[in-house]
Amino acid sequence: MEIDNKTKEVLKEFSPQIENFNRRFKILSAILIAIMLFALYAFYRQEKEGHIITGMRDNVVWGLYIANFVFFIGISYAGALISGILHLLKVEWRKPIIRIAEFITVIATIIGPLYILLCMGRLDRLFNLVLYGRIQSPIIWDVIAITTYIIGSFLFLYLAMIRDLAILRDTPGLKIGKFRRWSYKFLAIGYQGTKEQDKQLEESITIMSAIIIPIAVIVHSVLAWIFGMTLRPGWHSTIFAPYFVIAAIFSGTGVLIMAMWFYRKMFHLEKYITKKHFDYLGMLLLIMAAIYGYFTFSEYLTDWYTSETWNARVLKKMFDLHQYGWWFYFSVLVGNLLPIIVIGIKKLRTINNVALVSAIAVLALWVKRYLIIVPTLETPLLPAQDTRMEWVHYSPTWVEWALTMGGVAFFIFAFMMLSKYVPIVPVSLVSKPVEKTEEVEVKPTVETV
Amino acid sequence: MNKKIQHTIIKKLGRSLLIILCVALIAGNVSAAGKKLKTRIKVEYVKKGDNTKQIKATVSSKVKRKRVTLKGVALSLFDETDSTRLISTATTDKKGITVFTLPADYPVGKDGAPSVFAVRFDGSEKYKPASKKIEIKDVKLTADFKIVDSVYTIEVAANEMVNGIPDAPVSDVDVYVYVKRLFSLLKVGEGYLEDGKATIEIPNDIPGEYKTHNLEFVTMIPEADDYGTVENNKTIKWGAPAPKYPKYDNVNQRALWEPRAPLWMVITLGILLLGVFYHYFLIACKLYKIKQLGKNERA
Fold this sequence. Notes:
The structure holds 2 protein chains of 2 kinds. By secondary structure, chain A is mainly α. Chain A has a single domain, classed as Formate dehydrogenase/DMSO reductase domain (Formate dehydrogenase/DMSO reductase fold, Up-down Bundle), CATH 1.20.1630. Chain A is built from 17 helices and no strands. In chain A, helix 4 crosses helix 10, helix 7 (about 140-170) packs antiparallel against helix 9 and helix 13 (about 325-345) runs antiparallel to helix 14. Chain A starts with a helix and ends in a 19-residue tail after the last helix. Chain B is α+β, with helices and mostly antiparallel strands. Chain B is built from 3 helices and 16 strands. In chain B, strands 1, 2, 3, 6, 12, 13, 15 and 16 form an 8-stranded mixed sheet that branches. In chain B, strands 5-4-7-8 form a 4-stranded antiparallel sheet, with no helix packed on it. The interface of A and B includes residues 135, 136, 189 and 196 of A.
């Protein structure tokens, strides 16, 4: 494939990013690997000694693991929705950030379901889920939906990478190993940039962009229905599906902004990831925060006003500062209001501030997932006669924290490794001229008499 | 003096050991190269429910200390009760097994004496000849299916057959009742034959065939020394029907223990998955096309 000068210039800018493993990268990798190894040790202990070494008991059977699962599936929305919609609308400014969004999707979709496995008491019985799964169970809907979503996310990322893989394959002088070069050749599937190939590839990306949006909505709705279709206080709600979808876009946008800020600083991408990107995505974050706040208010107001016994008990725990009060106020007030205030006021809307409120919003949303799961499970509809506090009250152990940190470390590590494999900014896209939408001649519809 | 004798003894011992070792090695090589391997034949007799008789032979040998079954071995079945008479020949399958089926009216246990069957292998370049005999008396096994005080009961009777007439009762032998399932037999009851009779109770909640509620029972005396395996088959409407719920009882239809998911759910899920995977397939086709176009371009 012939590579034009513009592409060569852009690639030249990004080649150090994929060629060099500098000291900072190595140190960070070593720290992340150490965290992952510690998580692996925690997993070994959990498998050897059983779930007794976690904080989960008969009442609270879902804890940190399921909170993490919902969180990671949520942030995977960044790629699916943002890049899907922006591609369909042919928005020009999407080009430098689209790959970051797609990486987030793929990595988060891999990590999320791992937490379900960690939550299972007998991993050796995993195949029974496939062999004896019941379509009536929302858990099976979730398994099917997430599997479909993982395949879709991989396809979407792969399709968007083919052009860059072909460029990397045909660029001589890159300081990369033989295996890596072979992998570029293999994965580029003979793409030469011909008109017909380009047409086929563009059609494929458009199909995936269109289909990944409903898939992503369905996946998170199904995830919400696992809770919503259960008769438990705090869960049994009709708005849970859209509530989860909005939370997912909210957290996904937050993580995308954080990743943009990190890569902008690390690889000096100021030329590509500009203030405009932070402004636009900041606005999206603001809108999502507002909608999410509205949903939250509506959800808790109806629960509080009806004061149904069991719902009231859960709410009491949420508002009580001696129980979950501080967590609740942080997630609902700080996590929702802060992005609205900081991004809403133009003076405060700097790149660093947008990134900071995004990080706070993401943390608040993780806390919210924890609050959806734990207080409800601590309020059983049929309380046991012997209600010892250690049976009812959930407190995560070091094993669960280690595996949570392991997941976060894996997320960052995988991100770093993928950005070493292909440029974090799609070279083929940013070197392309501006995409023009079709111009249609407008004819006057009113005849002059 | 002592030292000299000791030295001589050690020398002689060493020499003898060396010779023994060499002989053993040579002998070993010779046996590995030229000696034929031993063959073993295992024979089982089965009288089926329709009175056909089967003689199942399994041929094996020890190769490198491991027992392996032999494929493609030509076996002959002889009736040696009065005189030696060839009944049939057959070749073993890939599992080293061959089954000779005798017709329902083939006489076994004539005049009260056991029939003698022999399976023979004439040997080959690699394997030694082998043969195996079995002595079998004919047995008639009957099963009477009754409901006694709401309990499903099978009354089993077994008698030796002499010239087609029931004779002495079979005693001190285990008898089992199985139900035929999709892949194998499910044991549902067992008893012990005394004076040729046994009464076996079986559960009344075994799911039967979906529409007819039929269950196929196999009553069996397994691998008895004098009689081999004797079976009796009977199909009877003793299967428990699948639970039926009222049409609009949604609670049960959506329950996880309900074997049939609601149809609308299966159809909805099917359409959704089909729609999504159709698009994945479409993209896979397009990727293939891109690859082919790339090949043409390079050519």
